[in-house]
Write a structure and sequence with these properties.
Blueprint lengths: L1 H19 E4 L3 E7 L2 E6 L2 E4 L5 E8 L18
Antiparallel strand pairs: 1-4, 2-3, 2-5
């Protein structure tokens, strides 16, 4: 009986620790909410949140995409 309670308690503790830590990739921002309202923005790296209360709602990409275009100009000289 004691072993079953200890096993359940240790599982709950490890699950809580797993849900507390999350990573954000390079050039991304994570938006978190607490009880459905905006809480914080987390930038790249290892971050911590309150498990069971804070939720990750959106992952935003901050990468700047380059568009290669060619521009042709006609020069008109007016004297």
């Amino acid at each position: 009986m004691i072993l079953e309670v200890f096993g359940f308690f240790s599982f709950f503790v490890f699950l809580t620790m797993y849900l507390m830590v999350f990573t954000v990739r390079h050039n991304h921002v994570v938006l978190t909410t607490r009880f459905g309202k905006f809480n914080a923005l987390y930038f790249s790296g290892v971050n911590f949140k309150i498990p069971y209360i804070d939720t990750v709602d959106a992952v935003l990409n901050l990468a700047v995409f380059q568009l290669n275009i060619t521009v042709e100009l006609k020069y008109v000289l007016i004297f």
